[in-house]
## 1
Amino acid sequence: MASIKSISDILDIAKVCLWLSLRDMDKQRLFAKNGAFKPQDVNILKWATRRVEWMHTKNPNYSTLRKTANYLYSLCGAKNAAIAENILQEIGGQVIYDNNTGQLLNGLLFPDPEYVVGGTGSPLSDGDTEFTITDSRIIAGTLKVYADGKLMPLDVVDQFSYSAIYAPTSIHINFNQGLVGGQVMRFEYIKGGQVQGSVTKSTQPTLYHTPSYGETFVVFPELVNIPLEDILYVFVGIAPKRPIGAATSDMNRIQYTSSTGRFDLASGDIFTGDQEVAVSYMV
Amino acid sequence: MALTPSFTVSQSFSTPSVLNIVDTSTGSDPTITQRRVYLQKADGTYLVPTGTTTDYIAWSYGVSFINIDVLDQDYALQITVEWLNVSNVVVETVQDTYRFDLESQFFSYGLLEDVSTDNTIIADANFLPNAYWLDTLIQGASNAITYGSNIQTAQACLDKAKYLIDNANFNF
């Protein structure tokens, strides 16, 4: 029997969904694929998360908080919420780093092995109807299979599809018809990283700032020396921007300089004066 | 030990019109006999409860806290507390800027309550953009205080939020 999620759990799940959907938005992968998340969904998810978090901070026993939190949970979508929950369980809600090297020891990894059916060294052969991925800390429900670049449907009978059985150390895939030699098969899934250290990082309160019209950058003193990997998401107004470590002309991205905690807009872009910059990060 | 003056301010969650101010000073100064609180608004005038004829609110030195029922809307305020001697000479002063935004916060949360009751509301073309805009204004007021101690900018944000709320029938 499914258990009732606590408000805190729902907020954690919503934040993971928000993070994953933003991460995948520009690549049209996983969370952003097949209508799982659209940009407008991300915006309402962000808004609802902030509202529920505010009330949860002010009065965790507020009479309508359960109702609004359940609505927030529904915004995540049943499957995405389940995946986010699996992720939280897999990594214990924590991202762990080596405190000397900064190497990610426990977090999320996104393997995407690709094989040519019948190719040299390929584990897939012409006519195969099943395949097992062996790995560790696999997060159930995250597999996507692509045949020649096209996402395959899951569990349908009238076209080439697959079914998957998950275990923590494997995904057993059954195809409803044999693979064909020369096909390029790609398998995307999410796994938790290996736990090796004891230094933990946790999500910090979101930072907000509204730059003036014409400005091209914004500085958050709290982010000085926070590495790029610890920036979970950046919004400019209602538009998600992917932070990168170099100057860019891509309006969907924003340059981040760790040493100064500074974000520079894409070349040629300016703030319009009514755009709030929101940054979620970990320390 | 000499007096190190300080105070904290909060807005009552259950009664948003009430400010709770607590004297958190350490040490003592035997010459101090009274306290005064100034609530200065962004336009330079002072906010006082109905019936108060001075710019300040007298705060009995014998009580460590004071509850002031004065917020008739969301405000960004510069709050000054003065510690005075018997001759009305100011001995110590502490001043800081604050925002009190529970009305906007509650209204914004109420929008989410509405959506969670009837999700079709978001089909209204104005609803979500104005909900996001209200959220941005609330955060803008917070930023103006946190990063700039700027009550003028913060009040401008809160006034725009109030306009959205006062015209809710058109905006949401």
Note: Residues 127-148 of chain B form the longest helix (22 residues).
## 2
Amino acid sequence: MEEAGGRVLDEMRQAVLAFDAEAVGRLCRRALAEGVGPLRLFDALREVITRVGEDFAADRIFLPELVGASKAMEAGMAVVREALALASKTMPGSSADGTACGGETVGAVARVALGTVQGDIHSIGKNIVAALLAADGMEVIDLGIDVPAARFIEAASGAAAGDPAAKGGKATPGRPVDVLALSALLTTTAAEQKKVIDRLEAEGLRGRVRVIVGGGAISQEFADQIGADGYGGTAPDAVRLVRAYVAGRDSAGKGDR
Amino acid sequence: MPLAGFKRGFPALAVLSEEQIQQIHAATLDVLEVTGLTFESGRALQILRKGGCRVDPEAKRVRIPAAVAEQALRQCPSSYTVRSRDPARSVRLGGNTFYYSDMPGRGILDLDTLKVRPATLAENHEAMIVLDALPNFHVLCAYTPYFDVEGWSPLMSITESTAAKIRLSTKVQWTGYQADCEKFAIEMAQATGQDIIGISCTSSPLTYGADACESAIRFAEAGLPVHVVSGCIMGATSPATVAGTLVSFGAEAVGGVVLAQLTRAGTRVSVEDSVLPMSMKSGAPLFGSVSAMLHTAAFGQAWGRYGLPLFANSGWTNSKQMDYQDGWEKSLTSLVIALSGCHVANFFGGVYGELAFHPLQAILDDDAAETIGRFIEGVRVDAGTLALDLIEQVGPIPGDFLTSAHTREHYRREMFLPRAADLLSYQEWERQGRRSALDRAKERMAQILRDHTPLPLPEDQDREIERILARARAFYAEKEGS
């Protein structure tokens, strides 16, 4: 028997590969309307971005295609998050954290919120990190640029919000993120990363989330000094840090956080 | 008399046709007028509005009419002196004169481990003495050349750097900005009766941050030169194409020129091409790449028509050490800059990107710098150099030229013997212990440190610098405390 929404999912995959964020969002909404569950939709998005990641690793495509596909996928992810949030509100007995839906759970290996800290409007490095993480199977919430500490705290506490500049990125409640990734290119804004970590401490959230930092102005010494869990000098470093965290978490078993 | 530098003796490289230059110019004016730039400073917005630009204060977006842009470009002096505290060390930027500056690094490259670490104060001091001594080095860049020097707080680093450059060298300098530090640099320039060039860097695409605006305004108001820098990353913060980046870069740079000229008409302005392509595999910038060289060559040519001093970067390389790759990437890019009609190449001492500096690299670069400089001076053709009488007199074999008075008179002008490079015959090289260019550079550095003393700053001026430093330290201590 043909899968529900099989054709629209195919079109959606094609739209990701054509870097058409608008179409991906539209097709994802249509898929939901045709009875595709949000978690099935999530899997379909992940399948296609994993394939894109393989092409990138094999030098068949380069950053312009990788980032383009990842942005397109993010438009679909926003639809998935919205649907899950709605389901958690309307379905009796559903989990309060917003990710469980009729007993199903989103199966991303880790949930990462990232952004460039307040006062800093540099986005390219952050976008590359987002694309590489997504291609590696992580769920990525891009908080955008010039992000105030309070928005990182919201993400850590579970009020996940996408980049308001991105389509469909409006705030939706969700599961707290596993990792916060903070970017700063300027020496003058590097200190803002410390502010985020200090706020996490003050709000009692520090133990619940890994904080990784990077960007042009950041060094390992600085990361150690401000109490970050990891430092990445390059975008692939960020992926390695998140992978290492996932490996550590999985080997430690449940309840690590 | 200012430092001579090198005089280009033939027309600059022409990689663009006249029609292409016109297309780029028209497109640049179009971006300025239609898209405009963001200036994140209320003071800049006010100056620009008063000067005839269309300002959207809400979006901080400024549309610059073509007439305003062209007027600002015309107001820039095409050639001017940047005064040193030692008049013999001033430079006259512009015209057909070519100079060298340096490429700073976050730290010093440790030659044994190839790791980069903060420089000690002693190492910082040594690097300054080497740069002060090298004969083909003319203009000190924004740092000493290290960003990280042990004992300097991050907020004080530029101010400490500016002071150290004044004290340890008579070569002129440009200086950076962050958190109001340019106020102290301007005071130091005034206290020592010299020019300090202030920089203003764009945040590509098409944006000037508040600090960059403030730096341009403050230096222009003080009657000091303003250096506008755009470092687009092709394919990331500007179009992936050389032509598109020329337009995007051009609009950014003209925006800075307009701000400086509207702040104070006739301000001495220079523009720097700091453009690089991005590696589409890693996202890292690609130094010494062919598209950067083509961009620089086109920049020199297209901006040559505006007639103001032009800088470009050649001191960075993808190599993490002083090796073959570092040598060819840096030297080839420098040659392109020199041929393109630009006036200053930021070349000396940089190793990887802006990550590392080493004085030995600067000593090796001094050889390449003179080779390139001598090359662009071209061929002198006159009755004396043609040597027609001499050729007739010597005739075929067994005639020779070695013992002629003409040879004795002329050969020094035609010859250049690099100081660190190994030029020995194989046998002599064996006899002398098989020394590499790097070994020889180490000997030259030891000799410089032994023999060279920079002209000391007069005592009263030194005390004034100390007073300014003390004020700056108090200012930032309070800032950090708040």
Note: The mean pLDDT of chain B is 95.
